[in-house]
Amino acid sequence: MSNLETIQQKKAEIIQKFGEWTNHNIQLDGDLYTISRQTITGAEVKLRRIVQMVADISGKSFENLRILDLACLEGLYGMELALQGANVVAIEGREANVEKARFAKDVLSVNNIEIIQDDVRNLSLEKYGKFDIVLCIGILYHLDVPDVFEFLEKISEVCQSFAIIDTQVSMVTETSALYKEKEYWGRLYTEHDPNTTVEERVKVLWSSLDNLNSFWFTRPSLYNFLSQIGFTSIYECHNPPVKKYEMMRLKKETDRSTFLAIKGKKVSLFSSQVMNDLPQEDWENSLKPEEL
Questions:
Q1: Which CATH code is given to the segment(s) 3-265?
Q2: Does residue 48 sit in helix, strand or coil?
Q3: How confident is the chain (292 residues) per 10-residue block, as mean pLDDT?
C-alpha cells in the first residue's frame, strides 16, 4: 500500500467514526485535502489574515514564537503556524475535532504542535504557562456569563504580547451583564435546546460544549473589558479581507470581526500632565443599535 493509500484509508476511518471535516480544509498530500482541493472554506480564507497578522505584529520569526490556539476545531490555524515554525499548543474540547487535528499532525509530521483535548474554560497560567500570542478564533461568542469574562481574564493572564480575537459581536444592546461591579452590554444567543442532554450538545460541533446560551458583547463593551483586563490598545483588522462583502464596512459595521488586543505597557505623556492625571474613558455601553 502506497503512502497516499494509507493516508486515504486512515482518513476514511476517521470519517466513518467522527463524520466529515466541517471547516478546516488542510492539504495532506498533493491533491488530497481533509475536505477537497475544490473547496475553499471560510476558515481557509481567514487563514491568510491570521498568519499575516502574526507575522506583521510579532516582530519575531515564527521559530521564536510560542502560540496558543484556543478551541482549535480541526486544527487549521495552529497547524499552519506550526508549519511556519512556531511552537503551538492547540486546545479543543470535542474528541471528534481533536482526532481530526491529530490525524493531520501525524500525516504532515508536525512535531512542534501539541493538540490537547480540554475545555478552554480550564485555561490557566499554572496549567499551560505563558504564550507570546493567543488565538481566540470562533469561541468567545459561544460562552455565557460569567464564563466569557473569566475566559478573557485567563487569556490576558497567559498572553505576553497580543491576542487575536475573531468573534461575533452584538449590534444591539439587548441585555447587560454585571461583572466585578461594572456593566457590559450585549445580547443573549441560544446555543442549544434546553431539553437536550449534555451528551447531545457535545455532538453539535458548531455550538457551545454545554451552556444553553451565550453572551455576545457589543463592540464598546468588548473594548472596555479588554482594556479593563490589561490590553493597552485594541484594533480591528480589515486587510487581508476575508469576504468581498467586508467592503460594506466602509459604510456600516458588521457583526463579525477580527480584533487585535495588544498586551503592552501604558505610556506616560511628557507634554500633558493633565492627560496623565485623567483616567481613561470607557466607551459608552448603552449605545443605540444604529449608533454602533
A1: 3.40.50.150
A2: helix
A3: 84 96 94 92 91 97 98 97 98 97 97 98 98 98 98 98 97 94 96 92 90 96 97 94 57 81 94 90 68 48
